[in-house]
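Handout for the seminar on molecular recognition.
Each group receives one record of this type.
Step one: identify the two inputs.
Step two: read the structure output and locate the region that could contact calcium ion.
Step three: write two sentences on what you found, then compare them with the reference statements printed after the record.
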Amino acid sequence: MWELNTFSLEERNTPGLTGPDDDFNSDGLINLRVYGAGFDARSTPDPSLLSHHLILEDAGQDYLVIQHQRRTNANDLTWTYERSDDLVTREPADSSSIPKVDNGDGTETWFIRDTLPMSSRNRSFVGIRLSLLP
Ligand SMILES: [Ca+2]
């Protein structure tokens, strides 16, 4: 559905241009990620709006956090948030302890936090997985 709303028939018929993992304008940002953040997949938004890492303090402890923007009216998208110590074993990351922010433009800003403070880990990875519903 997102491709129909975003690209013309001629664009959709051009191989390698309008698929979710394609990069329509060759800016290094794949179409689905740009769309998922609430932008036209033809545009080049500030990459930091798509996602960036932060260190946030809570009750005297520092936590690894990913801040990202997501489209609110996209029923065709599934967001998954994970954390890992080794990028092999994964577990859910915390997506609810920091309230999301309604940006008032059809997008929300979400904060995905590691489940334990940085002081309790040797290393940690927090990631976002975005997929299209069939
Ligand atoms: Ca792009």
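Reference statements: Residues 31-36 form the longest helix (6 residues). Helices lie at 2-6, 9-12, 31-36, 47-50.
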